[in-house]
Amino acid sequence: MTMLTGPPPAPVPPPPRETGPWPVVAAAATGVWIVLVTVPGQITGWLVDQVALVIGADRPVAGWPVVALATVLLAGAPALALALAPRSPALRVTGRAWTAAVVALGATTLLRTVPPVHHEAYLAALAVTAAALALVAVRLGRVRPPVVVDAVPEGRFGSVSLLAIAAGLAVLLPWAWVGALGGALETLLAGLAAAALGALAGALLGAGFWAAFGPGPARLVLVGGLVAGVALTPLAAGAGQSGVQLPALVLLPPLGFVLAALEAAARHAGRPAGSAPVRRLVGLALLGPLAFTDPEEVSLLLSATRDMPFWVAVGTGVAFAVAVLLAVGYGVLLARSRAHAPRRGAAALAAAALLAAVAVVYVVPGRPGLYGERLLVVLREQADLTGLPAGTPGRAGRDARAAEVYRRLVATADRTQGDLRRTLTGMRLSPTPYYLVNAIETDGGPAVRAWLSSRPEVARVLVSQRLRPLPALAPQARGDAPAPAGPAWNVSLIGADRVWSELGVTGSGVVVGSSDSGVDGRHPALADGFRGGDDSWYDPWEGRRAPADRGGHGTHTLGSAVGRDGIGVAPGASWVGCVNLDRNLGSPARYLDCLQFMLAPFPPGGNPLTDGRPSRAPDVLTNSWGCPPVEGCDPGALRPATAALTAAGILVVAAAGNTGPSCGSIADPPAPYADVLTVGAVDRQRRVTEFSSRGPAPDGRAKPDLVAPGAAVLSAMPGGGYATLDGTSMATPQVAGVVALMWSANPALVGDLERTRAILRDTAQPVTPPTGADTCGGPQDVSGAGLVDAYSAVRAARSAATG
C-alpha cells in the first residue's frame, strides 16, 4: 500500500445501493433534459444575433444573459436535485458534474455581452473565467477527506495521457485544413482559453467522477462515457463567442466516451488516469473552433455561398466523425486491454505522428500565417475644403475642383501623419496611409489600439475587419436567364427607353464609377463600355489587373446603370470599377481604397497619395453597399470621404439598405449622409418594397432622397448570363444612370450637384405609399421625393440654366 504525496485523489465511493430502476430513469431523463435545454438555447441565441445583423438592428445585449439565466434555471434545477440524491453515490456524482457544468455555462455565456468585434477581449475574459471556475472546482473537491488507495496515479505524460493528446490532435486536424488563424494575440488567447476550458473539464471529470462508475470496464465506458458526454455539452455551449460554440456542441459530447475508455485502460494497469487526459483532450479539441474560426464570419450573411459557414460545417462534420471513430476505437481496443495499459512508446509515436500531420496539413493544404484584424486610426485634423474656386461649368470646372481637393487632402495627410507613420513603421506594424479620410490603417491588437487612442492627434481608432482565407473559393456566381427581348421593365418604368428613342440621349461622354464586388469586364452587355487605360480598374483585395467579379453583385448593379441589351439606364456611358467587397463583406479601409480611387485614379502599383489623376475621376458613383458596425464602421467613419467627393463635384449615389420596414433603418454609412443621394426601392406597381430601408437618418434628416425599381430587376451576371435580383442595391445604379443621361444631355451640368439634385427631386413621380408610412415621420422618410423619372429629368436638364 502506497501513501500518496501531494493532493490526494478523490475518494472512491462505495458501490451504489440497489434502489430499483427509478433513479436510473430519473438520471437518464435529466441528462436528456439538459441537452434539450442547452442546445436549442444556444442555437436560438445565435439566430437572434444573426437576425439582428441581417435586418440592421442593434445587437440585443440582453439576449445572452437571458439565455444564460434560462439555461441555469431550467437545466440546473434537475441536475442539482440529482446531486442531492440520498441513496446512490453514482447519481450524486453525476448530479454534481452536471450541476457544475451548467453553472459554468451560465458564467461563460454572460461573456458574450462583449461585442464580437473585440474578440481578443472576449477570449481573455473566457480564459480567466474558465481558469477561475476550474480553481474553484478543484478546491471544492479537496474538501472531501483524503483516502489511501492501492494505486499510483499515472505520470504526467504516461501512455494514457499521450493517447489523449493523440485523440485531441486527431480532432484538431480538420480545423488545420478548413480554418485560418487570426492575429498573434488572438491566437495566443484562443490557446489559453482552450487550455482553461480543458482544465475546467478536468476539474469536473477527475478521479472522483470516474470512480463512481466502476468496477467493470463496460459500465465505465458506456455509462460513465454517457454521463461525461452530457457534462461536456454545457461546457461546449460556453466555449466561444456567438457562433463558435456551435461546432463545439457537436464535437465535445462524443469525447466523453473516449475519456471513459482512457480511464478504463488506466485502471487495468492499476494507475488511475485522473484529470490529465481530460484536460489535454478537451483543450486540444476546443482549440480548433476557438483559434481557427472567426465568429464574425460564422454568419447568415455568408451562408448563401460556399463561404465560412459552409467550411465550418465541413470541419465540424469531419471532426465529429473523427470523435465518433475515436470513441468506438478507444472503447473497443482500450477496454479489451485488461492486463496492462497501452505501451508508452506506441502512444508517444501516435501522438508525434498526429502532431506532424497537423503541422503538414496546416502548412500544405491549409492557410499558414496570421490573419488578424487591422486598425483604422482616424486623425483629428481633416482637410479644410472650404473656399474652393467655383470654376467654369461642366467637366473643366469639375476637373479643376477635383485637382484642388486632391491637393489639399494629400497635403493634410502628409503634414499630419508623418510622425505617427514613422513610429508605426519602427514598431513593424505596417501602416498604410489614407488621405480621403485623414487616417492610417495598421496592424495591432487591443494594447496598440489603447496606445493609439491616447495620442493627442488621434480622434478615434476603428477595427478594420480582415476576412480569413478559405480552403477554396466559392464558385463564381452566374445567371441562367436570357437577355431581355427589349428594354427591361424597370428601364421602361422610369422612362429611360423614351430618352434613347425620343431624345437621342444614351449617356455618351459620361463616366460612371462602380465600387462593389467587381465587374465581369467580358460580359457582352458591359465589355464595350469599359473606359480602358491603366487607371480604370482597381482591386485592393486580390490585385487582379483586369475587371473580374466572383460574387456577381457588382456586375448586376453596374449592368443596371450602363449595361447594353436593354438592361442599363445609360447604355452609352462608360464605366470604371473598383472592388470594395470580398465575399459580401468589406471594411472601412477597403471602402476608402475604392473611394480614393474614384477621386483620383492611379495606375497598377501606383501610390494613391502621389500618383492620383483627379482629371480621370468618374462623374457619378454608384454604391450599392453600406458599412455597418460589424465591419468596423461608426456613423462618421466615411463622412469626410463623401464630403470630399462632393466638394470635387462627383455625385455619390448610395443604396438606402434592405432593413425595412423599420423606421430609422437608414443607418449604415454612407446612406445617411446629407451629401449622398440615397435611393430606396419600389416594385412594378410603384409600391415601396417591404425591404427598402426607411428614414429618418440618425441626425433627423429625411431619407431616402428618391426611389427606383428594386424588385425582380433583370441585369448582367458573370459569365455572360443574366439574373433577377431584389434590393435597394438594384435601384441605386438606375439613379446613377439617370444622372449620366442628364449630364450627357447637358454637359454643363457635370459637377453641378445642387442643380442636378433639384431636377431629380422636381421631376420625380409619386409612388403608392405603404400602409403606415406616416409612422416614419411621413412619406419623405419612406419614398423621398418619389420615383425617379428619367424622361422628365433629361428634358429638364436640357433646358436647365447653370452657373
Strand content: 5-15%
The number of helical segments is: 22
Physical arrangement of strands within the biggest beta sheet: 6-7-5-8-9-10-11
SS-derived structural category:
alpha/beta
Return residue spans where pLDDT drops below 50 for at least 5 consecutive residues.
Answer: 1-19, 143-152
Query: How many whole angstroms does the radius of gyration measure?
Result: 31 Å
Mind explaining what this structure looks like?
With 803 residues, the protein is α/β, with parallel strands linked by helices. The protein folds into three domains: 342 residues, no CATH class; 91 residues, no CATH class; 310 residues, Rossmann fold, CATH 3.40.50.200. It is 47% helix and 8% strand. The chain contains 22 helices and 13 strands. The chain has a seven-stranded parallel β-sheet with strand order 6-7-5-8-9-10-11, with helices on both faces. A four-stranded antiparallel β-sheet has the order 2-3-1-4, with helices on both faces. Helix 19 links the parallel strand 8 and strand 9. The longest helix is centred in the N-terminal third of the chain and has 33 residues. It is elongated. The termini are far apart. The N terminus is likely disordered. This is S8 family serine peptidase. Belongs to the peptidase S8 family. One of its GO terms (molecular function) is serine-type endopeptidase activity. InterPro entries: Peptidase_S8/S53_dom, Peptidase_S8/S53_dom_sf, Peptidase_S8/S53_subtilisin, Peptidase_S8_Ser-AS, Peptidase_S8_subtilisin-rel. It comes from Micromonospora tulbaghiae.
